[in-house]
Design a protein that fits this description.
The protein is of the alpha/beta class. It contains six helices and seven strands. The strands form two sheets. A four-stranded mixed β-sheet has the order 1-7-6-5.
């Protein structure tokens, strides 16, 4: 198992993102789809935060709810900057799989954004990506 391979081998390139100016109902709809649980927030292509399914649950809004009244309430009372996490652990785009795995062990999130030196988001690595890599090495 070569955990010193580039992180690009396991990351999801160009992950689904939201802009910092998008509506919370857009975030809720994306997370309700169930394909992603960690949604990077960008501004001008640069990573500025992350919103997770858990973040919405902590605010009391289950992502699976799909009521127009809920979306209207969310959009009128909350903004992405109010809900997103800004203290993120990231890894540089030239990192290794080992670096990403270490980063995952230090944080609360189960995803680590991969960024260029200027903060541009280029990918995301999840704990599932790392486990899948390990299992594929058998």
């Amino acid at each position: 198992m070569d955990v010193d391979n580039p992180v690009a081998e396991v990351m999801t390139p160009h992950p689904r993102v939201v802009q910092i100016t998008d509506r919370i109902s857009d975030v809720r709809a994306i997370l309700a789809d169930g394909r992603v649980h960690h949604l990077p927030v960008v501004e001008g292509g640069k990573l500025v935060g992350m919103i997770t399914t858990t973040d919405l649950l902590e605010f009391g809004f289950a992502p699976r709810d799909s009521h127009t009244d809920l979306d209207e309430y969310l959009d009128n009372h909350f903004s992405i900057p109010q809900i997103m996490q800004t203290e993120l652990i990231t890894v540089p785009s030239d990192s290794t799989i080992r670096d990403a795995a270490r980063a995952l062990t230090t944080g609360r999130l189960h995803a680590v954004p991969v960024v260029k030196s200027d903060g541009e988001l280029v990918g995301i690595v999840t704990s599932t990506d790392i486990v899948s890599f390990v299992v594929s090495q058998d």
